[in-house]
Design brief:
Blueprint: H1 3-17, E1 40-55, H2 58-79, H3 84-106, E2 108-118, E3 123-129, E4 142-148, E5 151-156
Antiparallel strand pairs: 1-2, 1-4, 2-3, 4-5
Length: 157
Protein backbone atom coordinates (compact mmCIF):
# COMPACT_ATOMS: atom_id res chain seq x y z
CA UNK A 1 0.00 0.00 0.00
CA UNK A 2 1.11 3.50 -0.65
CA UNK A 3 1.70 5.80 2.31
CA UNK A 4 -0.66 8.42 0.89
CA UNK A 5 -3.55 5.93 1.07
CA UNK A 6 -2.96 5.41 4.79
CA UNK A 7 -2.64 9.14 5.38
CA UNK A 8 -5.86 9.86 3.48
CA UNK A 9 -7.75 7.18 5.43
CA UNK A 10 -6.38 8.53 8.72
CA UNK A 11 -7.45 12.07 7.83
CA UNK A 12 -10.93 10.87 6.88
CA UNK A 13 -11.27 9.10 10.24
CA UNK A 14 -9.95 12.15 12.11
CA UNK A 15 -12.61 14.40 10.57
CA UNK A 16 -15.23 12.22 12.21
CA UNK A 17 -13.69 12.74 15.63
CA UNK A 18 -13.58 16.54 15.55
CA UNK A 19 -17.31 17.16 16.24
CA UNK A 20 -17.35 14.66 19.11
CA UNK A 21 -16.20 17.26 21.59
CA UNK A 22 -18.85 18.39 24.03
CA UNK A 23 -19.35 22.10 24.36
CA UNK A 24 -19.96 24.58 27.12
CA UNK A 25 -22.18 27.54 26.39
CA UNK A 26 -21.17 31.16 26.58
CA UNK A 27 -23.47 33.18 28.85
CA UNK A 28 -22.70 36.42 27.01
CA UNK A 29 -24.25 35.13 23.78
CA UNK A 30 -28.02 35.09 23.39
CA UNK A 31 -30.24 33.59 20.74
CA UNK A 32 -32.31 35.62 18.30
CA UNK A 33 -35.49 34.51 20.11
CA UNK A 34 -34.28 36.21 23.32
CA UNK A 35 -33.99 39.65 21.72
CA UNK A 36 -36.65 41.96 23.15
CA UNK A 37 -37.82 39.25 25.53
CA UNK A 38 -39.50 40.02 28.83
CA UNK A 39 -38.43 38.10 31.90
CA UNK A 40 -39.58 38.18 35.48
CA UNK A 41 -36.59 38.18 37.82
CA UNK A 42 -36.59 36.77 41.33
CA UNK A 43 -33.89 36.36 43.93
CA UNK A 44 -33.41 32.71 44.79
CA UNK A 45 -31.19 29.97 46.14
CA UNK A 46 -30.30 26.68 44.46
CA UNK A 47 -31.72 23.86 46.63
CA UNK A 48 -31.00 20.95 44.25
CA UNK A 49 -28.71 20.45 41.26
CA UNK A 50 -27.97 17.55 38.97
CA UNK A 51 -25.93 17.14 35.80
CA UNK A 52 -27.66 16.38 32.51
CA UNK A 53 -26.51 16.29 28.90
CA UNK A 54 -28.42 17.92 26.09
CA UNK A 55 -28.01 15.48 23.19
CA UNK A 56 -27.51 16.09 19.51
CA UNK A 57 -30.51 16.74 17.29
CA UNK A 58 -31.78 14.10 14.87
CA UNK A 59 -30.53 16.27 12.00
CA UNK A 60 -27.00 16.19 13.47
CA UNK A 61 -27.21 12.41 13.80
CA UNK A 62 -28.29 12.06 10.17
CA UNK A 63 -25.48 14.31 8.92
CA UNK A 64 -22.89 12.49 11.03
CA UNK A 65 -24.07 9.14 9.69
CA UNK A 66 -23.91 10.42 6.11
CA UNK A 67 -20.44 11.94 6.57
CA UNK A 68 -19.23 8.73 8.22
CA UNK A 69 -20.52 6.74 5.27
CA UNK A 70 -18.77 9.02 2.77
CA UNK A 71 -15.50 8.88 4.71
CA UNK A 72 -15.76 5.10 5.00
CA UNK A 73 -16.46 4.64 1.29
CA UNK A 74 -13.52 6.92 0.42
CA UNK A 75 -11.26 4.94 2.75
CA UNK A 76 -12.48 1.65 1.30
CA UNK A 77 -11.80 2.85 -2.22
CA UNK A 78 -8.28 3.89 -1.31
CA UNK A 79 -7.37 0.78 0.67
CA UNK A 80 -9.11 -1.87 -1.40
CA UNK A 81 -7.54 -3.28 -4.48
CA UNK A 82 -8.56 -5.52 -7.36
CA UNK A 83 -11.55 -7.80 -6.71
CA UNK A 84 -11.54 -6.84 -3.01
CA UNK A 85 -12.24 -3.19 -3.70
CA UNK A 86 -16.04 -3.64 -3.74
CA UNK A 87 -15.99 -5.56 -0.46
CA UNK A 88 -13.59 -3.05 1.05
CA UNK A 89 -15.76 -0.12 -0.05
CA UNK A 90 -18.96 -1.69 1.34
CA UNK A 91 -17.32 -2.72 4.59
CA UNK A 92 -15.65 0.61 5.23
CA UNK A 93 -18.84 2.46 4.22
CA UNK A 94 -20.89 0.49 6.76
CA UNK A 95 -18.23 0.94 9.44
CA UNK A 96 -18.07 4.67 8.69
CA UNK A 97 -21.85 4.98 9.00
CA UNK A 98 -21.80 3.22 12.38
CA UNK A 99 -18.88 5.34 13.58
CA UNK A 100 -20.55 8.57 12.45
CA UNK A 101 -23.77 7.64 14.24
CA UNK A 102 -21.87 6.69 17.42
CA UNK A 103 -19.98 9.98 17.39
CA UNK A 104 -23.23 11.92 16.96
CA UNK A 105 -24.66 10.14 20.00
CA UNK A 106 -21.73 11.52 22.01
CA UNK A 107 -22.18 15.12 20.88
CA UNK A 108 -23.92 17.36 23.35
CA UNK A 109 -23.79 20.22 25.78
CA UNK A 110 -23.00 19.88 29.44
CA UNK A 111 -26.00 21.13 31.39
CA UNK A 112 -27.52 21.27 34.85
CA UNK A 113 -31.05 20.92 36.13
CA UNK A 114 -31.36 23.38 38.99
CA UNK A 115 -34.18 23.66 41.51
CA UNK A 116 -34.31 27.23 42.77
CA UNK A 117 -36.31 28.34 45.81
CA UNK A 118 -37.41 31.99 45.70
CA UNK A 119 -38.32 34.24 48.65
CA UNK A 120 -42.03 33.42 48.42
CA UNK A 121 -41.15 29.78 49.13
CA UNK A 122 -42.10 28.65 45.65
CA UNK A 123 -39.65 26.37 43.81
CA UNK A 124 -38.76 26.53 40.12
CA UNK A 125 -36.78 24.00 38.11
CA UNK A 126 -34.66 25.23 35.23
CA UNK A 127 -32.40 23.26 32.91
CA UNK A 128 -29.58 25.29 31.46
CA UNK A 129 -26.12 24.87 29.94
CA UNK A 130 -23.10 25.00 32.21
CA UNK A 131 -21.84 28.42 31.27
CA UNK A 132 -18.08 28.97 30.91
CA UNK A 133 -18.29 32.10 33.04
CA UNK A 134 -19.92 30.38 36.06
CA UNK A 135 -19.00 26.71 35.81
CA UNK A 136 -21.17 24.14 37.57
CA UNK A 137 -23.51 25.79 40.06
CA UNK A 138 -23.53 24.08 43.47
CA UNK A 139 -26.43 23.75 45.91
CA UNK A 140 -26.64 26.80 48.18
CA UNK A 141 -25.68 29.30 45.48
CA UNK A 142 -27.66 32.55 45.62
CA UNK A 143 -28.54 34.43 42.48
CA UNK A 144 -31.27 35.70 40.21
CA UNK A 145 -33.80 33.50 38.43
CA UNK A 146 -35.01 34.87 35.09
CA UNK A 147 -38.35 33.36 34.06
CA UNK A 148 -40.19 34.13 30.81
CA UNK A 149 -40.63 33.61 27.08
CA UNK A 150 -40.54 29.87 27.55
CA UNK A 151 -36.87 30.15 28.50
CA UNK A 152 -35.58 30.48 32.01
CA UNK A 153 -32.10 30.69 33.50
CA UNK A 154 -30.43 31.10 36.85
CA UNK A 155 -27.53 33.56 37.18
CA UNK A 156 -25.39 33.32 40.31
CA UNK A 157 -24.53 36.50 42.23
Amino acid sequence: MKAKHYITAALAAATLLVPSCTTMSDYDKISFEDLGGVHETMDGTVVAARYVKAGASSETKEWSTALGTVAGVAGGQLLGGGAGRVASTLGFGAAGALAGRAIAEGIGTHAQELTVKVKSGRKYTVTQPIYKQFGAIPVGTRGVLHVGNGRSRFVPN
